[in-house]
């Protein structure tokens, strides 16, 4: 595996050997509270290139990430 040079603010690209039809997507939330260390919550979606398989996150996965974040922190959230 090797890193490919890219312009600033571009999506990172990692070249690997093999078929190359799959991809991994990640959605994440970083939460900050005064006097505490930051919390990272994330969901992964793996696409393997199979017929009929969704390539990206369904909206329910985003919703579940938000609900899990709020339940874990047990506090109101401010989204920016």
UniProtKB/TrEMBL annotation:
Region (Disordered): 1-20
Superkingdom to which the source organism belongs: Bacteria
Protein name per the record: Transposase
Organism listed in the record: Nonomuraea salmonea
